[in-house]
Amino acid sequence: MSTSQPPEDDSFVAVPGLGQVKGFTTSDGVSQFLGIPYGLLKTRWTRPEAITRFECGKHDGTRHGPRCPQPSAADFSQLSVPGFPSSPLVVQDEFKCLHLNIVRPSGCTPASNLPVMVWIHGGGFSIGSNSEIAFDGIPLVKESISLGKPVIYVSINYRLGYLGFFASAKLLVESGGKSVGNYGLWDQRLALEWVQEYIEAFGGNPHAVTIFGESAGAVSVHSHMVAKSPLFHQAIVQSGALGTCSPVTLERLSACQGHDRLAEALGFTENVDLQTMRGTSATEIVEAMKKTFKGRLAAFTLLDDRQMEDGFFPPDTDFLGIQPFCKRIVIGDCENDVTGPPILSSHFSMIANVNRGLLLR
């Protein structure tokens, strides 16, 4: 595929069923499409619904979409990195944060059939977004082009903290016994379903998808590897796995990030109902998270929903064995992951080195 002569309309993509996406092309031959919505969220603490049509049939992908509500990294001393370039300032919106970014070589067409790499960010399931400067994907795509192995890069947002990983017995009663919690994982799965359905319009091959992530993103990757939804074909697990961050029972999860803990942080009694808690603002929920973790990096836990109806995790999984649709795996760790100022520099080098190795294969 030649990328030296992109067509004049290279920044516009017609996505069957959804509408048209407008992006932009950089001077070095890479196109970006930002903030593409993949999911709808109508009610807090429910699973997302798939987007079936862009509003008015069009999406402006020239600017970042909203972040999922979260504390600032400055609220956690472990993430302070003096002098590191700032990420773009974007608004936060609980109900409009489910979107993804796409970076591709210029000149792609639906016939390009390029491999796809889907990035799931880390951050303890409490912070992070696809708008972070470390995750914009341009260096990775440029490197892939220089190696003669061009890829398309996708980065996704998902719900975080109490908004994404809260669960309670009251929610279980409300659902009639159907699985609750793990909403951030359900968001990720819906994003991967979107990739399967629509990435071909951007020049990607839905049958050659690699998912990769670091820290909580790696735990997420491993979670999708043990689930039974064949939405990818390769995986890169960077500094995190279910064995080191094992899902816990609803009883144990409730003790650290459940109903009573959140109610107390919001200033309610433990008898407060879900409707009242849903009536609080996302800002109040974020402040409650900061109060709960008292300035420490908030690390949320996944729910072991194997025995619940329609859970994310299959009833027969031991959280170790992976599904046969995942054909290749790269596993490694990141030096100084959440242990000191070098966190982001090691972050860069790990991503670059692991992915360069995969691209060269």
From TrEMBL:
Domain of life: Eukaryota
This enzyme's EC code(s): 3.1.1.-
Pfam families linked to this entry: COesterase
Protein name: Carboxylic ester hydrolase
Family: Belongs to the type-B carboxylesterase/lipase family.
Domain Carboxylesterase type B, first and last residues per copy: 12-314
Enzyme class: hydrolase
An example molecular function term from Gene Ontology annotations: hydrolase activity
Keywords for this protein: Hydrolase
